[in-house]
From TrEMBL:
One Pfam match: N6_Mtase
Organism: Sinisalibacter lacisalsi
Protein name in the entry: site-specific DNA-methyltransferase (adenine-specific)
Similarity field: Belongs to the N(4)/N(6)-methyltransferase family.
Domain N6 adenine-specific DNA methyltransferase N-terminal: 9-79
InterPro entries membership: D12N6_MeTrfase_N, DNA_Adenine_Mtase, DNA_methylase_A-5, DNA_methylase_N6_adenine_CS, SAM-dependent_MTases_sf, T1MK-like_N_sf
GO term, biological process aspect, one: methylation
GO molecular function: methyltransferase activity
EC number(s) on file: 2.1.1.72
Length: 482
């Protein structure tokens, strides 16, 4: 049912002139789904309050409730006579609904409340529907979806993930929001978060790391206390971009986290020297944007000043970790060998403040549409690096859109990493053996077969002349036969 509903929405949006691409599709679907989710959540909370004999205050009230503007009904049947449609619907959404929901940010009790999340989402979001008739059809399809059971949310979350993945494959900008889930799951297996630990992603994007960590930690036999901890005091994230923020919030909600601890802010605006113990976390999982450039005033927040966004994020993550905390961060492989002052200083800082115990070297094509190779840094804060275990991932095929990374590709890495076992694809480098001047951490597999030495130019030219002479002789022989 849900698959058909998503396909119906997609077909409707193809005819909507305000929807230009996959990014718009996910964004506009998200806010409609969000409001339907809030309606179902409100109904669930109202029923719980009635059973407990308590008063219930709706999250959204009056004309702005879902069943008053999006799906008015009489005796359970859709009421076409009172439903807004056409330009009237668009005017109501743009001029009344969005401003009302945006006002929640100012009236909410705090940033960790569902009211604040609603305000954040609708302050930044813009309705891109131009046709009130198409919007009406979309609303009716979404009204048929239910968020009431865990099974229903799970199915919706899988479909939503599929759309996020397609958005990630749609172009350069979309790729910012999608990290291959098999890679995320491998990073989580290595860091192995436990109930009671906090997990942070300062470049949260579509919240893939937090959603997968939740799936890893969630069990049916959790106590009520552990369940409350998992829901409210475990997952934290920050996101700069409006589209990514709403997708991240919606993705976490669909995965079962009712009020995600996501903040709509630029993590790099925080001066890392001001980070206190209460601000730190036990685990950091992230794939920060790389190749970007930050303003000079942002660079002032870091001891190692650089315009490279990923380098600033890595400094942020190191200082956001508690002593004994564990990190797993994706970064360009050029970080391991660049000789500029910032790269060398950051490698030295990482090696001195953390035990960089593992480097996972990823093959070309791991990230769709990205033209760079990447590695994953696994580290533990509190003691300097003594030695680092490398694993060079080789799935035995070219990765691409139709042949992506899968869990089986990473199974050997996860298993060997437990004991840091050396083998054909893995090896260990001692800190004492690194060049002290550069701290070069380049991936150089000592077990790889040696490449054949390059031939001298004179030898290449001689071979070419010999082949030309042989070709000339054959052609002369053919001409003699004519």
């Amino acid at each position: 049912m849900y698959e058909n509903a998503f396909n119906s929405i997609e077909n409707l949006l193809r005819a909507e002139e305000g929807i230009a691409n996959e990014l718009d599709y996910v964004e506009q679907t998200s806010w409609v789904l969000f409001l339907k989710y809030l309606h179902d959540l409100g109904s669930e909370r109202r029923d719980e309050a009635e059973l407990n004999g308590e008063a219930y205050v709706p999250i959204i009230d009056g004309a702005f409730r879902w069943n008053n503007w999006a799906a008015p009904k009489i005796n359970g049947q859709f009421d076409h006579n009172t439903a807004r449609i056409g330009d009237d619907l668009i005017r109501f959404v743009d001029g009344e609904l969005f401003p009302y929901l945006a006002s929640f940010r100012e009236s909410a009790d705090g940033p960790r409340t569902i009211h604040y999340k609603i305000g954040e989402v609708f302050t930044e979001l813009r309705n891109k529907f131009r046709s009130g008739y198409i919007m009406r059809d979309v609303l009716e399809v979404v009204d048929g979806l239910s968020f009431n059971t865990q099974a229903e949310r799970h199915e919706l979350s899988q479909l939503y993930e599929t759309r996020i993945r397609r958005m990630g494959n749609a172009g350069r900008n979309g790729g910012e929001y999608y990290t291959p889930r098999p890679l995320i799951r491998a990073m989580i297996k290595v860091t192995d978060p436990k109930i009671g630990e906090t997990i942070y992603d300062g470049a949260v994007g579509s919240a893939g790391f937090l959603c997968e960590a939740y799936a890893h930690m969630r069990r049916d036999d959790l106590s009520a206390s552990d369940w409350a901890t998992l829901q409210a005091d475990t997952f934290y994230g920050q996101e700069k971009k409006s589209l990514a923020y709403i997708i991240g919030v919606m993705n976490m909600i669909l995965h079962g986290i009712e009020a995600p601890n996501l903040l709509h802010t630029n993590s790099l605006n925080e001066n890392v020297m001001d980070i206190q113990e209460k601000d730190r976390h036990d685990i950091i999982l992230a794939n920060p944007p790389f190749g970007g450039s930050e303003r000079r005033e942002v660079q002032q927040n870091f001891p190692i000043r650089t315009g490279e966004t990923a380098y600033l994020f890595l400094q942020h993550f190191i200082r956001k970790l508690r002593a004994g905390g564990r990190g797993a961060v994706v970064i360009k492989n050029t970080f391991l060998s660049n000789t500029d002052n910032a790269s060398v200083a950051l490698r030295r800082d990482l090696l001195e403040s953390c035990q960089l115990h593992t480097i996972l070297d990823l093959p070309q094509g791991t990230f769709q549409g990205a033209g760079v190779k990447t590695v994953v840094l696994f580290f533990e804060k509190g003691a300097p690096t003594r030695q680092t275990w490398y694993y060079q991932l080789d799935p035995g095929r070219s990765l691409g859109k139709t042949n992506p990374l899968n869990d089986a590709d990473l199974a050997e890495f996860v298993e060997l990493q437990k004991t840091f076992a050396d083998g054909p694809k893995s090896w260990t480098v001692k800190r004492a053996d690194l060049d002290e001047a550069t701290c070069d951490l380049s991936v150089k597999n000592p077990n790889a077969p040696e490449a054949a030495p390059l031939r001298a130019p004179e030898e290449i030219i001689a071979d070419m002349l010999a082949r030309d002479a042989e070709t000339t002789a054959i052609l002369e022989e053919i001409r003699g036969m004519l």
